[in-house]
Structure formats: structure tokens, C-alpha cells
Design a protein that fits this description.
Layout: E1 2-7, E2 15-19, H1 33-43, H2 46-51, H3 65-68, E3 78-88, E4 97-109, E5 112-122, E6 125-132, E7 135-142, H4 151-170
Antiparallel strand pairs: 1-2, 1-3, 3-4, 4-5, 5-6, 6-7
Length: 186
């Protein structure tokens, strides 16, 4: 099963939406259907992972940072998006489930969304990268997956790890990646 995660994105707060071969979206006008579909499109486009361009070929127009971040949030300084995937663990006992996820957090830079952190979870380890100016800081922490991952326990586990990663990123003071600077965006 795959899920799309949205936090502080448009009208969504810490929301996991399951996506399968046939997913139906039903709702009143202005409830987030187009925002969700636009995000699914962006996240499934390989170019988005490299450029994080929220206007590139999307079915809906998202606009700038202030148009994307949730207006009802108490902290409008960021929004987070990502994907979660669960499935049978290869080479393991029947019924064992694996969980992986990738989450990108964006902040405002001159009116446009700019990635400020990236977290990736796999095999019980969470790798978090925090981008500060032209530097990147990283940290790897252990977070063993729960034995079972029904939708309720997956949500609880994911949100616990997501919140811990957010707290960790706020106080991250780990060594710079090889002390290298990243090129400035043009």
C-alpha cells in the first residue's frame, strides 16, 4: 500500500491518504481534491525530486509558498509532503511488513517554496538532512518498525517518527557533509 503525506499543505494537517490502483476522491467543492491530485502528480514526476518546481506540468496551479502553506496553521513557516510505502518484506517470514518513507519539508524563500529538510526511513533507520544556506547537516537515528502495520498503527508509528525528526532537525548540530558547500540556486 502507498500513502501520500501532507502537513501544513493547503488545508491538510498531518494527513495520510492511501493510494491504490483505483482511488476515488469524493467531496464538496474546496475540500482539497485538486490539491491532493496535483501533489500526487508532482510526487510521481522524477523531475520534481531534483527541481522541486511546484508549477511544472501540474494539473492544478499551486502558486507560491503562501498559496501552498495552510492558512489555518498556527505555524505557517513550513509545509511537508511525502510518500509512505508498506509491503511484504522480501526474504522474511510470511506476514512481516516493511515500511519506507520519504518526506520533504519546505520553507519560504522570497515567496517560493525551498526545501529545508529531507527525511528518508528504511530498515529501521531514519536519515535526516537539514539544508542551511549552502550547507547540509545530517543525522541517522534508529526507529525499529512495529511488528504489525495496520492503518492505525502505521499512522501512529509514522507520525511519531515524523515528529521526532522535526524536533531533531530544529536542534541539529551534526557535522557538515564532508564540509562541502552546495551551489547557490540561480
Amino acid at each position: 500500500m502507498r500513502y501520500v503525506f501532507m502537513d501544513n499543505y493547503r488545508g491538510f494537517a498531518e494527513t495520510l491518504i492511501p493510494v491504490s490502483g483505483a482511488t476515488f476522491l469524493v467531496g464538496e467543492n474546496s475540500t482539497g481534491k485538486t490539491s491532493f491530485l496535483t501533489l500526487v502528480h508532482l510526487l510521481s514526476t522524477p523531475e520534481f525530486l531534483f527541481a522541486q518546481d511546484f508549477s511544472r506540468g501540474a494539473p492544478g496551479i499551486l502558486g507560491g509558498f503562501r498559496d501552498i502553506v495552510s492558512i489555518t496553521s498556527s505555524d505557517a513557516s513550513y509545509f511537508s509532503i511525502g510518500t509512505i510505502r508498506t509491503g511484504a518484506k522480501a526474504g522474511r517470514a510470511k506476514g512481516e511488513v516493511e515500511c519506507t518513507f520519504n518526506i520533504m519539508k519546505f520553507s519560504d524563500e522570497e515567496g517560493l517554496p525551498r526545501i529545508c529538510s529531507y527525511s528518508s526511513y528504511r530498515n529501521g533507520k531514519l536519515a535526516s538532512i537539514l539544508f542551511k544556506g549552502d550547507r547540509a547537516h545530517y543525522k541517522v537515528t534508529e526507529h525499529p518498525s512495529p511488528a504489525s502495520l495496520d492503518s492505525g498503527s502505521l499512522r501512529d508509528f509514522f507520525l511519531r517518527v515524523y515528529r521526532e525528526a522535526s524536533r531533531c532537525q530544529r536542534r541539529m548540530k551534526t557535522p557538515q557533509i564532508a564540509g562541502r558547500k552546495f551551489p547557490s540556486p540561480r
